[in-house]
Design goal:
- The longest helix is centred in the N-terminal third of the chain and has 38 residues.
- A hairpin with a 2-residue loop joins strand 1 and strand 2.
- With about 400 residues, the protein is mostly helical.
- The protein has three domains: about 90 residues, Orthogonal Bundle (Fumarase C, Chain B, domain 1), CATH 1.10.275.10; about 230 residues, Fumarase C, Chain A, domain 2, CATH 1.20.200.10; about 30 residues, no CATH class.
- The strands form three sheets. Strands 1-2 form a two-stranded antiparallel sheet. The chain has a two-stranded parallel ribbon with strand order 3-4. It has a two-stranded antiparallel sheet with strand order 5-6.
Amino acid sequence: MKLWNKGYTLDEIVEDYTVGRDYILDQRLVEYDCRASITHAEMLHEIDILTENEKNQLIKELKNIISLHKNGDFKIEKSEEDCHTAIENHLTKKLGDTGKKIHTARSRNDQVLTALRLYYRDEIKNIEELINENIKSIKKLIDKYGDIEFPGYTHTRKAMPSSIAMWAGGLRDSMRDNLDYLKFYAKFIDQSPLGTAAGYGAPLNIKRDYTAGNLGFERVQENPVYCQNSRGKFESGLASIFKLVMYDLNKYASDLILFSMPGCQYFSLPDKFLTGSSIMPHKKNPDVLELMRAKYHIVVSLENRISSMMANLITGYHRDFQLFKEAIFEVFDITHASLRISANIFDSLKVNKDKCEEALTDELYATEKAYKLVKQGVPFREAYRQIASQY
């Protein structure tokens, strides 16, 4: 049964269109919604809406739902629309009138916001750990091969000597900045919207500080209107940061595709990272790097989708917000998977010293030659012209 059921039957086509994939996507949020509901039940007991026995019954059954979910036995029907309805229906079926009390001082609006914030908080920690794994993998690469020099490029042409330490260190330093971006933005996520209901509060003296603290939020998001208005805004900000992470992986995937190809071969990837051709027996292809390069553009498009959909809406909740969920979930999934793979790649990457040294041709030292003249007192522009005439 739908929580908003008013005694009429919704057109089946309308139901399919409005529910979309929410009943599938919400499997990610079941545990988070139950955790928030447990804290909410404790708060309702604190303000004498629930008896001690009712609170305990609800908490026991909510924990049971978490167990069912972990075992793959908690189902969300399309007719229920989302996990919030499925959970409340389960509680009502098991506990009768006690189950019907859990929605007191709540709306699905602040329910989904709270569950998403808890989910984001965990996922941000997971991404931070993966970024740190990449930094460690890059450090190992530098420790092993850092002193090896090879060409640095501008305009895809040889420019000046570079080194593995300089090249890999560029990604390491950028990943450190990404961590700082993420930690800064996590502060916005770390505020509790629970208790703001549909965006205008609830006519009860509830304890929002109590639920925020028990759920581990740093603070309460005070203004109920802003709670709804921040939906989309926060997702867009997160997607923007993950876009920066994927931008770094895109650039270094592009490098490795170029620098491992015949003719360069500065780097070699183990066979376990390479795929083959169905017709050409000799082919070993860097598909994983090509897909990593391409997935940056998917994250860009997802960020654009969120940013575009949240615009031109008046203050308050709109069903448009439902469509942010799948987009931000995909952003998390892509970034998570890409960082896992990139860490493995840097752990396994081989640098071919001979190929690197062979590529250090004379023109790479042209700037150095010009500066030797500068040290002898020749004006830089004159030194530049003298050396340029040799090439």
